[in-house]
Amino acid sequence: MAAAGGGTNLDPLYDEALFWILAVMAVGAAITMICVRQAVHCALMLAIVMISLAVMYAMQGAPFLAFVQIIVYTGAVLMLFLFVVMLVGLSSSDSLVETIKGQRLWAGIAGIAFAVLLIVGIGHAAIGSAAPQTVANSAGNLTGLATLIFTTYVFPFEVTSALLITAAVGAMVLAHRERTTPKPTQRDLARRKVASRQVAPEPPPGVYALNNAVDMPARLPDGSTTSRSVSRAVEQRDMDLGRDPEKTVAADLAVEDRIDAERQIEAAARGRDEQ
Amino acid sequence: MSPAHYVFLATILFVIGAVGVLVRRNAIVIFMCVELMLNACNLAFVAFARMHGNLDGQVVAFFVMVVAAAEVVVGLAILMAIYRARKSASVDDANLLKY
Q1: Which of B32, B41, B83 to mutate to test the interface with A (most CBs of A within 10 A)?
Q2: Is residue B64 part of a domain?
Q3: In this predicted complex, what is the ipTM?
Q4: Please, which pLDDT band fits residue A267 given cuts at 50, 70 and 90?
Q5: Domain A1-90 has CATH 1.10.150.20
Q6: What 3-state DSSP class applies to A143?
Q7: Is A77–B72 a contact, with Cβ atoms under 8 angstroms apart?
Q8: Chain B neighbours among A 157-196 (CB < 8 Å)?
Q9: Each residue of A180-230: pLDDT tens digit?
Q10: For chain A, domain boundaries
Q11: Least crowded by CB within 10 Å, which of A251, A273, B4, B84?
């Protein structure tokens, strides 16, 4: 598996085409990632970069790393990111106001300078072409890696386990929240419900209104609407989009009244004709 | 493609990640940029492993992935704790140690 000389058994032409496609994709996605506002979009762009890199690992004779990249990075790490984005809230987008004056400009200049520094430095270094695989890789990529990990790198490998355990314990300690009040029992919950004077479930949105939408407040038997039936997140979204469901209801009622009036006029006219 | 191409690509991705860390203020996005930088380093490691014709670079990239996974777990837990205390994921709002 990909143990041929130069680390890849791809045809050179395909190799080159694939590299340029993936490179443009990865760089484009990375630049988009640092430009878009929503954290979720950033995560999606990062996924594109990581999958492109996984294919590049496979092209360079590292099939094991390619699969680990997809399973661990795009699978586990990015899911963790998305999970935290969901917990912290989808509205966690950056504001476009700069808090430090000229931060973006100077960061861009620093980035370009850094890139020039690195590229000039690496350009002066002698990076040879791909060497033929040595004995280490002759038995296949996975066997070679396993041999190295469990012989030369066995101590770092063992230390890694300590790191992983520390990370797991640390995450548990940091994410744990002490309960400051005793857990409410079923009796407490029942008492609270009766005391709140709302024993029946809250009215669901949109059911008694003219429109059947979740942002439409429920219409109570006395004709008034209740804001308790609409989720606060939906309300916020309506406010962001400049929608007013109450106004829509009012407009619909007005239209109905007008239709009624026109119908009465029509009926009266018909009655006159018949006479 | 020669390993040099991959090393230059890794350089560009690393710089983009560094600029992202400097520019963005949402802590989650900054974390993603750090991950991008780690990925760029991995790409360089794999390219150098191919250049030398041995597997040591791939082993190092493997260890970087393990450390990155552990780092993400702890980092995101810290972020959750900060968010719980300050109701914000912006790095500008975590300024208690500033003065």
Answers
A1: B32
A2: yes
A3: 0.92
A4: confident
A5: no
A6: helix
A7: yes
A8: 157, 160, 163-164, 166-168, 170-171, 174-175, 177
A9: 888 889 999 989 888 888 787 777 776 555 566 777 777 777 777 777 777
A10: 1-90, 204-274
A11: A273
**Domain count of the fold of chain B:** 1
**Which of B28, B42, B55, B87 would best serve as a mutation to test chain A binding (most A beta carbons within 10 A)?**
B55
C-alpha to C-alpha distance for A49 and A29, rounded to whole angstroms: 6
Single-letter amino acid, residue B16 = I
- Amino acid identity of residue B51, one-letter, is M
Residue whose tokens read 């900060």: B82
Give burial (CB, 10 Å; 0-12/13-18/19+) of B88: middle
- Mean pLDDT value across residues A106-127: 90
Residue type, B17: G
Residue of chain B whose Cα is closest to the Cα of A13: B1
Q: Give the pLDDT band (50/70/90) at residue A1.
A: very low
CB pair distance less than 8 Å for B32 and A81:
yes
* A92:B66 CB<8 A: no
Q: What is the pTM of this model?
A: 0.76
**Yes or no, beta carbons of A81 and B76 under 8 Å apart:** yes
CATH assignment at residue B76: 1.10.287.3510
Q: What is the SS3 assignment for A226?
A: strand
CB contact under 8 A, A60 and B46: yes
A217 φ, ψ to 5°? -65, 150
